[in-house]
Amino acid sequence: VGSSGKSTTLRVVAAALGVPSSDTTTYNAWGSVSSAVRRIVPGQRHAVIEVGIADKGQMRRYSRVVRPDVTVVTSVGSEHHRSLGTLDVTRDEKAWMVRALPSDGVAVLNGDDPNVVWMAGETCARVVTFGFGTACDVRADDVHINWPNGTRFLLTAFGESRCVTPRLIGRHMVYPALAAIAVAHLEREAMTAFAATATRIALRQAGAELLEQFGRPLDSQQQPQDLLAVGMGKGGAGELNVSSDLDLIFVFREQGETEGVPGGSGELRPGSRISTGEFMHRLARRAINLLSEVT
User: Fold this and answer.
1) Which of 115, 147, 196, 288 is the right S-S partner for 76, CB 3.0 to 4.6 Å?
2) What residues does 224 pair with on adjacent strands?
3) Half-sphere exposure of residue 193, counting CA atoms within 13 Å on the CB side?
């Protein structure tokens, strides 16, 4: 969404998320918006949709069709003065796609445009800003044209700094790159959080079955202990994407035995006490099977 820069930002964000160019279109109004939504198929992780307006009331209707999880706003300019009159009216109209975000959504806003930054107060969603200003969450400094390879700049984002050279020429083209970097980082955050939640659920479900058979796993002091799953690689770094492997290491405190399960005579059921190591091995194996199952 924005007065300018929408189509380039669409393409760069789509590339960052691995969305094929054939799945995107820069036709951004009327039936093209609903057509873009209808092309989304079950199981599709991402869709990147450009939305443009020409008059009052349009963006609100589009927002009801799109129902975004992430909204990127590139700019608010005077292109719509003939139909909308002022920048205040223009920003208020474009802000409907930000207002439509759910509480767990994200507004990715151009932090150098005061009319775009104004939209941060129009949403209950998380806000991430991009631009050249020192207050931006995703910021570019020291910009140089590196012809014919692209534009080189120092990227500072989410606690890290590094030099990058996207294949886009010009200072104005840094904005789409920054927006795409922000969206890609949010995607990695979401995938990592999803993987962590799925792992917890798998361990809980597999553990419930084993607890019925063997009771709680104990340490040498007869205290219950848990199996911990530690993410490695991209999982440990919080950088999972849809094509990443989930690499896990399972650890527990120390060896011991399970407490066993009472039998009908009040004694422990035969075979219900096993070593804690064996219990944890079975738990990890069952959890991995659950995580690997295609549903």
Assistant:
1) 115
2) 218
3) 7
For residue 152 the two structure tokens come to 């080189």
What is the Cα–Cα distance from 72 to 51, expressed in whole angstroms?
A: 10
Give the predicted TM-score (pTM) of the model.
0.71
How far is it between the farthest Cα atoms of the chain? Answer: 88
- Of residues 107 and 186, more confidently modeled: 107
CA atoms within 13 A on the CB side of 146: 16
Q: How far apart are the first and last CA of the chain?
A: 35
Burial grade of 169 (CB within 10 A; 0-12, 13-18, 19 or more):
middle
Asked which of 18-32, 81-95, 104-118 is least confident by mean pLDDT, the reply is 18-32
Helix extents (H) in the chain? 6-17, 31-38, 58-66, 81-84, 87-94, 96-99, 114-117, 174-214, 233-236, 276-292
Q: What is the mean pLDDT of residues 28-46?
A: 87
pLDDT one-digit tens code per residue, 107-118:
999 999 999 999
Distance CA 68, CA 100 (A): 7
Distance of alpha carbon 193 from alpha carbon 235, whole angstroms: 9
One-character DSSP codes across 41-54: -TT----------S
CA atoms of 257 and 260, how far apart (whole Å): 8
Alpha carbons 138 and 221: distance in angstroms, whole number: 50
